[in-house]
Amino acid sequence: MIMGAAATASAFAGDMRIAFGDLPGIESIQTLAAIERAKERGVNVELIILNDEDLAAQAVVGGQADVGIGAPYTLIQKVGVPIRVFAQISTLRFFPVVNSEFYKTWKDLDGQDIAVQARGSGTEAVMLLMAKNHGITLGKISYVPGSEVRRNALLQGTIKASIVDAANRRAIESEAPGKFVVLPVENLKATDEAVFATADYLKNNAADVDILVEELLKTAREITANPAAAVELRHKYKLLADLGAEADSEITEYYKETAEAGALALNGGGADAAADDFAFFSLAGQIEGDPATLKVEQFWDVSALDRAIAKLGAK
């Protein structure tokens, strides 16, 4: 069951408060299903919806949550609390979308306002990196949580340039054919969503963390092998009930496209993902230092992932 934004005052043995820094949508089914499966194995998960990756990270730092979901590389460098990523969920698949009445190329966005998910998010990193690659400077950056929210704002004309996920890109193309241009993005292999926690939490709650990591890997593998499984999981666990049954075909198509792109992390990322992230987030200006000199252990704790791979095998 998805809980509200208020966290409990403390967590007891077997409890896990997960701060979700986004509005759950189609792209969240894998994560939500894995959490439900972790509950079935005895982990008492409270999911805290905060609508903002930055708030989710702050909740972990402040002790209001045990686990966060996002890509907290900037936070890890800037905050003294030892936060560590312990498994990658998915890699970036975002699509910059602009209203063709105003813009048609990256150059047209020089000095123009855009909207992204959150400060320090993958969406912001993509837009900053593309601006750098195309020699432009973006104008005001607004933070608008929820890819569906940004899609609706584009359709309504309240924003003219933003970035959305694959499902909402498809919806925009269907609902307003020809009105928008999807700007090109070079192939990116960087983290979109990962799970992270303090070093102390990972050490003191290894059994619960292991269960969550195993279920994230198993669910990613199941959906990648059979994208229609996402619909089955949605119905089994009564996920995203507000979308209605008509969303099932869109969910299948979304996960088919996601599977073909290899965007779900079948092995949870680890050192290889960290190297890709160092390169990407450094270029985007969100972490400092030469990527070649950054150390995996400064950002990641791969122990739970190693145990899961040893148990489940590598894909």
From TrEMBL:
Keywords: Signal. It comes from Mesorhizobium denitrificans. Pfam families: NMT1. This is ABC transporter substrate-binding protein. SUPFAM superfamilies: Periplasmic binding protein-like II. Residues 39-230 form the SsuA/THI5-like domain. The keyword Signal applies. It is found in: Periplasm. One of its GO terms (cellular component) is periplasmic space. Its main location: periplasm. Belongs to the bacterial solute-binding protein SsuA/TauA family.
